[in-house]
Write a structure and sequence with these properties.
Ala_racemase_N; 8-stranded mixed sheet; 2 domains; isomerase; Lyase, Ornithine Decarboxylase, Chain A, domain 1; TIM Barrel; alpha/beta
Length: about 375
């Protein structure tokens, strides 16, 4: 039995903390929900707490959101594939775009579906992920604005996700200036500059967000209370909205050093052991979760005196030292999780998803039987 728990009270607290911060700075924000991987339980929880736009980079997740809450505005936050144009228009109210041919495909589908599809034009600002080059921005905008059933509602940029390039006041001022130039050249108005994300939030605390940067897309800080810019935490926010729990399936006192000639393990590594531990023993526990479901490097036992030794495909091994807490087979151990740990667990169908620790034992029996 292994499961990930979402604490609704802590999520609600983080949401209101951010909402107040953005309201004070006259910024509209949207929730990035891709971490939830379209899970119905967790999405329902989020939608009960938030009335904001919801962003995702997976169409199936946007479809789930629309099925759960048809009036919720949705944003597809990566350049769409042309072949997905029909579904993009159907399930996303807004999409981020960098290719004229794709926008034309979205236009054709919008006409077919009798809709106006909104787009944000993404601009390259140094991160070298998605975004058109600044020198081409005016021409691109001039072409896009003439495409039928397409409404340009903003320009945006992405930073920090690929090469770790951090946002700064200078970059954001430049982006605002680009918007003003386009508006002047094309005699138009662009409502939004979507240039904020979790990594940009610390600039708000320093009053370094230029006027005109009026739209943020936030996921990690909402769910983890993290200061992504400084790789730290934000005081007043919860870092433990999520928690992993796994059951002990074996507990035995064993040698601390393995015996025999060592080759590579499942992940292609040859573990190195400190010979100072030769001849010593400790209590080892095996849990019913492995690297198919989690990455041990991104988990941290909540209780002290526990060390993660490693994991195979479907088991994780812990060193309990002398087992001073008197763990037994069938007991569970809790772990704190970072972003990557939650993302891996959410993508695993073998890790159950639980709201506020409300566990249904019958459900686990069904899962075990079906596996």
């Amino acid at each position: 039995m292994s499961y990930i728990t979402l604490n609704t009270n802590k999520l609600r607290h983080n949401y209101h903390y951010l909402n107040q911060l953005f309201e004070e700075n006259h910024i509209i924000w949207a929730v990035v929900a891709k971490l939830l991987c379209g899970n119905e339980k967790f999405l329902k929880c989020l939608l009960e707490i938030s009335d904001k736009e919801v962003c995702d980079s997976r169409l199936t997740n946007l479809r789930h959101i629309k099925q759960l809450s048809p009036t919720t505005k949705t944003i597809y936050i990566k350049p769409p594939a042309k072949r997905l144009a029909r579904s993009i228009v159907q399930y996303a109210d807004v999409s981020f775009n960098t290719e004229i041919d794709t926008i034309k495909a979205l236009s054709n589908e919008a006409i077919e579906q009798n809709k106006i599809h909104k787009i944000v034009i993404m601009v390259e600002m140094g991160e070298l992920r998605e975004g058109i080059m600044v020198k081409n921005l005016s021409q691109f905008y001039g072409e896009a604005i003439r495409i039928p059933n397409i409404e340009i509602v903003g320009i945006g940029t992405n930073l920090n996700c690929l090469n770790g390039i951090l946002p700064d006041e200078k970059k954001l001022i430049k982006l605002h200036r680009f918007k003003e130039i386009i508006e002047e050249i094309h005699q138009t108005k662009i409502p939004f500059i979507s240039a904020g994300s979790s990594v940009t939030i610390p600039l708000l605390f320093k009053n370094k967000i230029p006027e005109g940067i009026n739209h943020f897309r936030v996921g990690e800080t909402l769910f983890f209370g993290t200061d992504v810019y400084n790789d730290s935490i934000i005081n007043g926010m919860h870092q433990d909205v999520f928690q992993m729990t796994a059951e002990i399936i074996e507990i035995v006192e064993k040698p601390m050093i393995p015996a025999g000639d060592a080759g590579t393990n499942l992940t292609g590594e040859t573990p190195i052991h400190d010979n100072i531990n030769k001849g010593k023993t400790s209590v080892r526990a095996i849990l019913d979760v492995g690297i198919l479901d989690i990455d041990p490097k991104h988990l941290q036992p909540i209780s002290s005196g526990i060390e993660i030794i490693g994991a195979s495909s479907d088991m994780m091994i812990l060193d309990l030292a002398d087992n001073s807490k008197d763990y037994h087979v069938g007991d569970t151990i809790d772990f704190s999780m970072n972003y990557m740990a939650v993302l891996r667990a959410m993508n695993s169908e073998y890790v159950d998803k639980v709201i506020d620790n409300k566990i249904n034992p019958k459900h686990f029996k069904i899962l075990e039987h079906s596996n």
